[in-house]
Structures are given as structure tokens and as C-alpha cells.
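dude i think i finally got it to work??
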Amino acid sequence: MIEGLVFSGEIENIRPTAGAIGKAVRIDDALGRYIEYAKASIPRDSRWKVCGGGWTARMGPPTNHACVLRELGAEVIVYGNQPDGMNINKDCGSIASEEMCRRVRGAIRRNWDRP
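look at this
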């Protein structure tokens, strides 16, 4: 449907412009609100793993996101968290996933029988 509107040119007749779009406003505690919303969205009885930290980049130091995840009951394994501008994927990340796999397998073995 959207493609049809774009290709036919009809989108120009229904697309809002300038004054009809609205304006951006700053919400001082947007990050805190987002964290609380995210925490409320996750069932407490679920078992899950999070690999990577890109989604938490705006939260500040890795210890901040580790705290949020631990508060949700996750076991947090932090590594490769000392970037210097040159080593962002050195021995970690999508470039070298072996170490992450080793650490996650170890965590799974440790927690296999945990309810």
C-alpha cells in the first residue's frame, strides 16, 4: 500500500509537512523512563541471553547496562568493554565471536540445572 502511494505520487497529497508534523521536545529523564519501560516489559520468569551492547550505548559505561540487566535477574558476562577507538572489535564482537561463544557456553553449563 505504501509503495503504491509513493510510486503513484499520491503520497504528496497526504504527507504532513512543516506545521502539521509537530516539534521535538526534550525529555530530561528519557533514558530512565525507557529503562523502566524495558524492565516492565520482560517477564521475570523468562531465561534469556543478551550478546553485545550496542543497544545500551547511550546508557553510559558498561557497568550501567550490566546493573540494569542484573536487576532483571540476568547473569552478565562483560568482556571486550575497553574500546580505545582502534580496538572496537579486537578479539570480540562479530569479527571474533569465539571468545563470546566460549563464555556463553560456560555460563550455560554452570546454569543448566538452575530453575
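The chain is about 45% helix and 0% strand.
im so relieved honestly
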